[in-house]
Amino acid sequence: MEIKHTAMAGTLESSDITVEIKPNPENEIGIILESSVEKQFGNQIKKVITDTLKEMNIQSAIVRANDKGALDCVVKARVQAAILRAIDETHFKWEVEN
Questions:
Q1: 8, 10, 75, 90: which is deepest, by most CB within 10 A?
Q2: From which domain of life does this come (predicted)?
Q3: 37-75 as b/e, with b when 16 or more CB fall inside 10 Å?
Q4: The model's pTM
Q5: How many domains does the chain have?
């Protein structure tokens, strides 16, 4: 999938994350993370973002994330929502993990 334009998902509330995704003219993945817990969990947050991009076949994008202590499932959901908005997708089969 190709990112068509800039899109956002999330809030700046506690335990949430704001994710902005936009096209990358360099044709690679770039992640810019701001987080009060970056020293402890920065690598894990970036891994969740990267894994979600791969799952959704995104190979080129700039992702700016402002984390306020979000759990991995919230990070994944916000990245998915931002991607869907950025590719103008209106139909998506959401999966529930058991």
A1: 75
A2: Bacteria
A3: eeeebeeebbebbeebbeeeebebbbbbbbbbebeeebb
A4: 0.90
A5: 1
Q: How does residue 98 score in pLDDT terms, banded at 50, 70 and 90? A: low
Whole-angstrom Cα distance, residue 69 to residue 16? 6
Bridge-partner residues for 31, per DSSP?
63
56 in a domain, yes or no? yes
77-81's contacts with Cβ under 8 Å and 24+ in sequence apart are 77/9, 78/9, 78/10, 78/16, 78/17, 78/18, 78/19, 79/9, 79/19, 79/21, 79/48, 79/49, 79/52, 79/53, 80/52, 80/56, 81/9, 81/10, 81/19
- Identify whether 98 is part of a domain: no
Domain span including residue 53? 7-86
What is the structure's pLDDT at 11?
A: 95
